[in-house]
Specification:
The complex is a heterodimer of chains A (154) and B (500). With 154 residues, chain A is mainly α. Chain A has 6 helices and 2 strands, in the order βααβαααα. Chain A folds into 2 domains: 77 residues, no CATH class; 77 residues, no CATH class. Chain A has a two-stranded antiparallel sheet with strand order 1-2. The chains are: A mainly alpha (154), B mainly alpha (500). At the A-B interface, α1, α2, α3, α4 and α5 of A face α8, α9, α18, α19 and α20 of B.
Chain lengths: 154, 500
């Protein structure tokens, strides 16, 4: 879906406004206490109101700027960035299940092929090399805790 | 012991082989992330933050601070050679720095920028060293009401000086403050907005959020467009500036140091403001203002010096008040806190070895920057030629490793991914995410100060207006607002002239 800058700006403002209202509702259930003795929900409730008002202000401002917005509509996330975003989400979702070695290998390969337009054979070779170097540096030398995943679980 | 004795002790700490190595790693990595378009000091520091947890506090802070000023320096290389600011503060450097490069003076421009960065950085450290002990003494007398007011004032200043519209900055600050309320309530231990997720008991992971908001989102932003220009590496001989260039840059360098130091103390986007103000001042004072934008040496030396002077003075609010003036120092604050150290007036009393070790390492790091980077400019140019197809996956993988290794928590990875996507969308539509991160860091102290003050005063809100400290903070706020508004008008006019 393509949006103009001012449209996207307004939508994000409205989302933030909605988030503020939702947070306000949750804050009130925590107990705001009294003016003299604020409860755990007092500060979040006050900030939620600020977020809702600010978000609304941003949306109104963006709608006012609509007439001056002559830039062409563009997708929310463009081209290579969209592909990278999907791969990042997949990496994070499967990092602990698949383990570092498998996930790093597949992620590097997919990013190089789809983002960098690198030939699969070269990308495969580079992925293996980088994964090995990272494993050596981070797990063996720096002793960082990396997930072993289902394949290598002992 | 007086300050000189402490400084000598600091040099002994900073010159130990381990700390010297960490300082080198910091400035080298900092320059590399500063050089690469799309990665700035925030991302560079956030990436190595988890690694500092296994180091001693002094070593970890020395490395992170090295990344900070290394990145501010590195940004000038891309500005001069490619007209691409490696980070926002280097925008002004593009104007005359790149014009010098186009006229075959790339080497001179790099040297003038390097020497200016060194002078600005060093003078600002001297300023930091002189002012910090006095300010610390003043801050020790401040109680909870004044602390709450101070946090509020800091956030209001960020709203005032930010480059995005105030309503957007205000909204981002509110968002950051709200995120900061997630977790167990510090006074009643009530669960707040945890949705049954125990990973949130200590609040949202700062590392995951900062890497997502800055590292991941910056990479996604840089993947939107391809950069194909190939920079030329200047030879060592070309690095020597002419006598005329040295003469033209000397005054600008000294003025840039003063401007950068003064504006650096202001929370917010002081790097950008200080570089524009310095540029405007140099053009005003120049006998040949028509040369600005066409390769004027003073137009490069002044802003580049101001940029690095700002880096030193932006450490003052962090080290003396415990307030990060800019997002990069928020990462430093997080590093301090992870080692159980709270920056603020007591830092000099409780951890003098950390404070003075850091000061000494900054002197050393600034020298290292000049000694390493001019001969190694070819290496950084080669780094610039690395295709994003290789660079992006490597950086993202380092981000994931860094975030996961803190607590071995998959949940933190989800936070990183979500923050990365949210940060991308917010930035794509003109929202600056930096104030949100600052607010997240300051929010807890603001709320604690607010509630403690009300307990002390038995619910009397007048406590927030009484006392000399509160009045001083409000006075400083008013002064900063006036100065910033004038500086922004000045900078905006300058920008408009340049665009015309």
């Amino acid at each position: 879906m393509k949006v103009r800058l001012s449209q996207g700006d307004a939508i994000i403002g409205l989302i933030l406004c909605g988030l503020g209202l939702w947070w306000l509702r949750m804050s009130l259930t925590l107990g705001v206490g009294t003016w003299a003795e604020p409860g755990p929900g007092f500060f979040p409730a006050a900030i939620s109101v600020a977020l809702a008002v600010g978000g609304l202000g941003c949306a109104i401002r963006a709608l006012h700027a609509r007439a001056r917005d002559t830039a062409e509509a563009r997708p929310w996330i463009e081209g290579r960035a969209a592909t990278a975003a999907v791969l990042i989400v997949l990496l994070c979702a499967f990092f602990s299940i698949g383990g570092f070695l498998l996930c790093a290998l597949l992620f590097l390969f997919a990013m190089m092929v789809f983002i960098g337009d690198i030939k699969p054979a070269r990308a495969g070779l580079m992925s293996v090399a980088i994964t090995f170097v990272f494993w050596l540096v981070f797990e063996r030398i720096l002793s960082l805790q990396l997930p072993s995943g289902i394949l290598f679980a002992s | 012991m007086n300050s000189i004795d402490y400084l000598i002790g600091g040099f002994a700490t900073a010159l130990s082989l381990k700390n010297l190595f960490l300082c080198f790693v910091g400035v080298f990595w900092g320059t590399a992330v500063g050089v690469l378009p799309g990665l700035g000091p925030m991302a560079g520091m956030a990436l190595l933050l988890p690694l500092t947890f296994s180091l001693d506090p002094t070593g970890g802070i020395i490395m992170l601070t090295g990344i900070f000023y290394g990145a501010m320096y590195g940004g000038s290389t891309t500005s001069i050679l490619l007209r691409i600011p490696g980070e926002a503060a280097s925008i002004v450097t593009c104007l005359d720095g790149h014009e010098m490069a186009r006229k075959g003076r790339a080497g001179s421009a790099l040297t003038i920028a390097a020497v200016g960065s060194w002078v600005g950085g060093t003078l600002s450290i001297i300023g930091l060293m002189i002012t910090a002990p006095y300010l610390s003494d003043v801050m020790l007398s401040v109680g909870p009401p004044a602390e709450a007011v101070l946090m509020l004032v800091a956030l209001l200043i960020v709203t005032t000086v930010s480059n995005t519209p105030p309503v957007k900055t205000f909204t981002m600050i509110a968002l950051g403050l709200l995120i900061g309320t997630i977790g167990l309530d510090s006074q009643t231990a009530d669960q707040r907005f945890m949705f049954g997720q125990l990973d949130l008991a200590d609040g949202m992971s700062f590392v995951a959020l900062s890497i997502g908001l800055f590292g991941i989102s910056e990479l996604l932003m840089s993947l939107r467009e391809k950069v194909d220009e190939r920079p030329k590496t200047p030879s060592l001989r070309e690095l020597i500036p002419t006598r005329q260039e040295v003469r033209e840059s000397t005054g600008a360098t000294l003025r840039g140091s003063g401007i950068g130091f003064a504006l650096g103390i202001i929370p917010g986007v002081s790097h950008i403001v200080s570089t524009f103000v310095s540029y405007a001042v140099e053009k005003k004072l120049s006998k040949h203002p028509e040369q600005f934008g066409h390769g004027a040496v003073a137009g490069l030396a002044g802003p580049e010096t101001a940029n690095n002077a700002t880096t030193g003075s932006s450490m003052i609010p962090l080290l003396v008040l415990g307030i990060p003036a800019i997002p990069s120092t928020a990462i430093l604050l997080s590093a301090f806190q992870n080692h159980g150290i709270q920056p603020g007036p007591l830092l000099l009393v409780d951890h003098p070895e950390v404070f003075w070790g850091l000061i000494a390492s900054m002197y050393i790091g600034n020298v290292l920057l000049v000694l390493l980077n001019l001969p190694l400019v070819g290496l950084f140019v080669r780094l610039l030629r690395t295709p994003m197809g290789y660079l992006a996956p490597i950086v993202i993988l380092i981000c994931a490793i860094g975030v996961f290794s803190v607590k071995a928590s998959p949940f933190d990875l989800y936070v990183m991914a979500a923050a990365g996507l949210a940060g991308y969308l917010l930035r794509r539509f003109g929202y600056d995410v930096a104030p949100a991160l600052l607010a997240m860091v300051l929010g807890d102290r603001m709320e604690t100060g607010f509630r403690s003050a009300l307990t002390i005063s038995a619910g009397d809100y007048g406590i927030f207006l009484h006392g000399p400290a509160v009045k001083i903070f409000l006075g400083i706020f008013a002064a900063i607002v006036v100065v910033t508004v004038i500086a922004k008008i000045f900078a905006a006019r300058k920008l408009r002239d340049l665009q015309v």
